[in-house]
Amino acid sequence: MRISITLLQYDHGIIRQVLDVVGCVVRTHQVPKHVSELKEAMVFLDQFMDRFHHAKEEMFLFPAAAEECPKVADLLERLKEEHVTARRLLRAALKAIEAGDVERMEQEARALVDHMTVHISEEENQVFPVVENALFLETDARLHAQYERFMVENFGKSYYEVSEEFANDLQDRLMGPGYFTGIC
Ligand SMILES: [Fe+2]
Ligand SMILES: [Fe+2]
Predict the structure, then answer these.
(1) Which of 69, 83, 131, 167 has its CA 20 to 30 A from that of 179?
(2) Cα–ligand 2 centroid distance for 53 (angstroms)
Protein backbone atom coordinates (compact mmCIF):
# COMPACT_ATOMS: atom_id res chain seq x y z
CA MET A 1 0.00 0.00 0.00
CA ARG A 2 1.14 3.53 -0.76
CA ILE A 3 -0.59 6.46 0.92
CA SER A 4 0.06 8.70 -2.13
CA ILE A 5 -2.04 6.29 -4.23
CA THR A 6 -4.69 5.61 -1.56
CA LEU A 7 -5.41 9.32 -1.24
CA LEU A 8 -5.93 9.67 -5.00
CA GLN A 9 -8.29 6.67 -4.91
CA TYR A 10 -10.15 8.39 -2.12
CA ASP A 11 -10.48 11.49 -4.32
CA HIS A 12 -11.83 9.25 -7.08
CA GLY A 13 -14.57 8.07 -4.72
CA ILE A 14 -15.76 11.63 -4.12
CA ILE A 15 -15.49 12.52 -7.84
CA ARG A 16 -17.43 9.38 -8.82
CA GLN A 17 -20.16 10.13 -6.30
CA VAL A 18 -20.76 13.54 -7.92
CA LEU A 19 -20.44 12.12 -11.47
CA ASP A 20 -23.04 9.45 -10.61
CA VAL A 21 -25.50 12.14 -9.54
CA VAL A 22 -24.84 14.13 -12.73
CA GLY A 23 -25.20 10.93 -14.79
CA CYS A 24 -28.51 10.20 -13.10
CA VAL A 25 -29.90 13.67 -13.85
CA VAL A 26 -28.82 13.41 -17.49
CA ARG A 27 -30.03 9.83 -18.02
CA THR A 28 -33.47 10.58 -16.65
CA HIS A 29 -33.70 13.80 -18.74
CA GLN A 30 -34.18 15.91 -15.63
CA VAL A 31 -31.66 18.58 -16.55
CA PRO A 32 -34.29 21.35 -16.98
CA LYS A 33 -35.54 20.69 -13.43
CA HIS A 34 -32.09 20.63 -11.85
CA VAL A 35 -30.05 23.30 -13.62
CA SER A 36 -28.88 24.94 -10.39
CA GLU A 37 -27.75 21.60 -8.89
CA LEU A 38 -26.00 20.76 -12.15
CA LYS A 39 -24.19 24.07 -11.95
CA GLU A 40 -23.17 23.38 -8.35
CA ALA A 41 -21.85 19.97 -9.41
CA MET A 42 -19.82 21.46 -12.28
CA VAL A 43 -18.38 24.23 -10.10
CA PHE A 44 -17.44 21.57 -7.53
CA LEU A 45 -15.81 19.35 -10.18
CA ASP A 46 -13.93 22.34 -11.60
CA GLN A 47 -12.35 22.83 -8.20
CA PHE A 48 -12.10 19.36 -6.67
CA MET A 49 -11.47 17.31 -9.81
CA ASP A 50 -9.52 19.73 -12.02
CA ARG A 51 -7.72 22.16 -9.72
CA PHE A 52 -7.18 19.78 -6.79
CA HIS A 53 -7.09 16.13 -7.91
CA HIS A 54 -5.73 16.42 -11.47
CA ALA A 55 -3.25 19.06 -10.29
CA LYS A 56 -1.89 16.67 -7.63
CA GLU A 57 -1.52 13.89 -10.20
CA GLU A 58 0.24 16.14 -12.71
CA MET A 59 2.46 18.05 -10.30
CA PHE A 60 3.41 15.29 -7.87
CA LEU A 61 2.49 11.66 -8.62
CA PHE A 62 3.02 11.47 -12.39
CA PRO A 63 6.56 12.95 -12.46
CA ALA A 64 7.66 10.65 -9.61
CA ALA A 65 5.98 7.65 -11.24
CA ALA A 66 7.55 8.35 -14.65
CA GLU A 67 10.97 8.31 -12.99
CA GLU A 68 10.55 5.25 -10.80
CA CYS A 69 8.29 3.29 -13.15
CA PRO A 70 9.30 4.27 -16.73
CA LYS A 71 7.12 1.60 -18.34
CA VAL A 72 4.00 3.69 -17.57
CA ALA A 73 5.54 6.99 -18.77
CA ASP A 74 3.66 6.99 -22.10
CA LEU A 75 0.41 6.11 -20.39
CA LEU A 76 0.89 9.00 -17.95
CA GLU A 77 1.27 11.40 -20.89
CA ARG A 78 -2.04 10.15 -22.28
CA LEU A 79 -3.72 10.57 -18.91
CA LYS A 80 -2.51 14.18 -18.81
CA GLU A 81 -4.09 14.78 -22.21
CA GLU A 82 -7.31 13.30 -20.86
CA HIS A 83 -7.21 15.86 -18.04
CA VAL A 84 -7.14 18.58 -20.71
CA THR A 85 -10.18 17.02 -22.40
CA ALA A 86 -12.00 16.80 -19.04
CA ARG A 87 -11.29 20.49 -18.39
CA ARG A 88 -12.60 21.41 -21.85
CA LEU A 89 -15.82 19.42 -21.32
CA LEU A 90 -16.29 20.90 -17.86
CA ARG A 91 -15.89 24.48 -19.10
CA ALA A 92 -18.21 23.74 -22.05
CA ALA A 93 -20.87 22.44 -19.65
CA LEU A 94 -20.53 25.56 -17.46
CA LYS A 95 -20.80 27.76 -20.57
CA ALA A 96 -23.98 25.94 -21.65
CA ILE A 97 -25.41 26.45 -18.15
CA GLU A 98 -24.61 30.18 -18.27
CA ALA A 99 -26.26 30.39 -21.71
CA GLY A 100 -29.32 28.45 -20.51
CA ASP A 101 -28.86 25.95 -23.34
CA VAL A 102 -30.42 22.78 -21.90
CA GLU A 103 -29.61 20.53 -24.85
CA ARG A 104 -25.92 21.49 -24.76
CA MET A 105 -25.86 21.09 -20.96
CA GLU A 106 -27.10 17.55 -21.32
CA GLN A 107 -24.63 16.74 -24.10
CA GLU A 108 -21.56 18.19 -22.36
CA ALA A 109 -22.44 16.73 -18.96
CA ARG A 110 -22.99 13.29 -20.46
CA ALA A 111 -19.68 13.51 -22.36
CA LEU A 112 -17.88 14.54 -19.16
CA VAL A 113 -19.36 11.67 -17.14
CA ASP A 114 -18.46 9.12 -19.85
CA HIS A 115 -14.96 10.52 -20.30
CA MET A 116 -14.16 10.63 -16.59
CA THR A 117 -15.59 7.17 -15.91
CA VAL A 118 -13.14 5.68 -18.44
CA HIS A 119 -10.28 7.87 -17.21
CA ILE A 120 -10.70 6.88 -13.57
CA SER A 121 -10.95 3.17 -14.51
CA GLU A 122 -7.70 3.43 -16.49
CA GLU A 123 -5.93 4.95 -13.51
CA GLU A 124 -7.38 2.50 -11.02
CA ASN A 125 -6.85 -0.63 -13.11
CA GLN A 126 -3.85 0.00 -15.35
CA VAL A 127 -1.71 2.62 -13.65
CA PHE A 128 -2.07 2.73 -9.89
CA PRO A 129 -1.39 -1.00 -9.23
CA VAL A 130 1.81 -0.86 -11.32
CA VAL A 131 3.01 2.41 -9.80
CA GLU A 132 2.19 1.24 -6.30
CA ASN A 133 4.58 -1.69 -6.74
CA ALA A 134 7.39 0.49 -8.05
CA LEU A 135 7.23 3.58 -5.85
CA PHE A 136 9.91 3.87 -3.14
CA LEU A 137 8.63 4.36 0.39
CA GLU A 138 10.59 7.61 0.74
CA THR A 139 8.99 8.91 -2.45
CA ASP A 140 5.57 7.94 -1.13
CA ALA A 141 6.19 9.90 2.09
CA ARG A 142 7.43 12.91 0.12
CA LEU A 143 4.35 12.85 -2.16
CA HIS A 144 2.07 12.61 0.86
CA ALA A 145 3.70 15.72 2.37
CA GLN A 146 3.42 17.55 -0.98
CA TYR A 147 -0.29 16.72 -1.31
CA GLU A 148 -0.91 17.93 2.23
CA ARG A 149 0.94 21.22 1.76
CA PHE A 150 -0.76 21.83 -1.59
CA MET A 151 -4.19 21.26 -0.03
CA VAL A 152 -3.67 23.37 3.09
CA GLU A 153 -2.15 26.28 1.15
CA ASN A 154 -4.71 26.36 -1.66
CA PHE A 155 -7.94 24.79 -0.40
CA GLY A 156 -7.78 24.83 3.39
CA LYS A 157 -7.14 22.19 6.02
CA SER A 158 -10.72 20.91 6.08
CA TYR A 159 -11.11 20.60 2.30
CA TYR A 160 -11.89 16.88 2.48
CA GLU A 161 -14.64 17.37 5.07
CA VAL A 162 -16.18 20.21 3.04
CA SER A 163 -16.00 18.20 -0.21
CA GLU A 164 -17.47 15.02 1.27
CA GLU A 165 -20.28 17.04 2.79
CA PHE A 166 -21.03 18.62 -0.58
CA ALA A 167 -21.06 15.25 -2.39
CA ASN A 168 -23.33 13.63 0.22
CA ASP A 169 -25.67 16.60 0.31
CA LEU A 170 -25.96 16.73 -3.50
CA GLN A 171 -26.66 13.00 -3.62
CA ASP A 172 -29.30 13.26 -0.88
CA ARG A 173 -31.02 16.18 -2.59
CA LEU A 174 -31.19 14.54 -6.01
CA MET A 175 -31.21 10.81 -5.44
CA GLY A 176 -32.70 10.64 -1.96
CA PRO A 177 -30.94 9.57 1.24
CA GLY A 178 -29.45 6.08 0.97
CA TYR A 179 -29.69 6.07 -2.86
CA PHE A 180 -32.37 5.04 -5.31
CA THR A 181 -35.29 6.55 -3.47
CA GLY A 182 -35.01 9.79 -5.45
CA ILE A 183 -35.04 10.40 -9.18
CA CYS A 184 -32.78 7.46 -10.16
FE1 LIG B 1 -6.23 11.59 -13.76
FE1 LIG C 1 -7.32 10.51 -10.95
Answers:
(1) 83
(2) 6
Whole-angstrom distance, CA of residue 183 vs CA of residue 181: 7
Give the model confidence (pLDDT) of 59-114 as tens digits: 999 999 999 999 999 999 999 999 999 999 999 999 999 999 999 999 999 999 99
For the domain that residue 97 is a member of, what is the CATH number?
1.20.120.520
Distance 184 CA to ligand 1 centre (A): 27
Q: Kindly give the distance from the C-alpha atom of residue 105 to the centroid of ligand 2, in angstroms, as a whole number.
A: 24
Domain that holds residue 99: 3-175
Q: Tell me the percentage of the chain whose pLDDT exceeds 70.
A: 96
Q: How many structural domains comprise the chain?
A: 1
Cβ-based neighbours of 41, under 8 Å, separated by 6 or more: 18, 21, 22, 170
> Does residue 121 sit within a domain?
yes
**pLDDT tens-digit readout, 128-154:** 999 999 999 999 999 999 999 999 999
In sequence order, what are the residues at sequence separation of 6 or more whose Cβ sits closer than 8 angstroms to the Cβ of residue 11? Answer: 48, 52, 53, 56
Residue 183 covered by a domain: no
Question: 33 C-alpha to center of ligand 2: Å?
Answer: 30
